[in-house]
Amino acid sequence: MNLHERSLSVLACRYVDEVIIGAPWDVSKDMITTFNISLVVHGTIAENMDFMKDDLNPYAVPRAMGIYCRLESPLDITTSTIIRRIVTNHEAYQKRNEKKEASEKKYYDSKSFVNGE
Q: PANTHER family of this UniProt entry (predicted)?
């Protein structure tokens, strides 16, 4: 999905009023008041959750304000798992095609043509 498609998918959720494209990593008090943000949500699955342990947590302000919500993600799909699946499926596709090509070559090599005599 490109940025436009992702934004439209998020906006399709009835609980979402607005999508901020190009938002900064840290959610600041100024950003919350400027955009009138009532809830900041983050999923539990991410490529790297190390930022949750740091003192520089991007969600520190929303947590302090009591508007932070952690959403349990039902699936553990990340970009890494998607890439792994694509590579695995591509390898299976190549093996299947090589087998088909070998079978086709064997068929054409053993094929004899009918003469009109």
A: ETHANOLAMINE-PHOSPHATE CYTIDYLYLTRANSFERASE
